[in-house]
Fold this protein.
Amino acid sequence: MFRFENLEVWQESRKLVKEIYLLTNKFPAQEKFGLIDQIRRAMVSICLNIAEGSDRKSDIEFKRYLRMAITSAEEVVTGLYIALDLEYLKQNEFDKLYKDLNSLVARINSLIKSLK
């Protein structure tokens, strides 16, 4: 088993990847190579940075990857705001994902603080 598989932040981000994919499937087709791609890549980046950073040789390096995961989460939130403004998603869909992403970022920050 890889170290990252035991991390709740990785498990949570993995679930959010699926939610983002399902949600963006409902966006207009003309956004396939625009907003859909950008939001998906940013969400996947959260998961990948947590995984990649977990195997680094020092906590300092791991923290750096966790901070990159947070910036990717902020990118996802911004993309969701744009989708909301363009009426590609409903307010309740936005609110749920916003809450989930905010919770994930808080948990990543807690993990950062717990590292030496």
Observations:
- The CA atoms of residues 54 and 88 lie 35 Å apart.
- The domain at 3-21+28-114 is CATH 1.20.1440.60 (de novo design (two linked rop proteins)).
- The two ends are 23 Å apart (CA to CA).
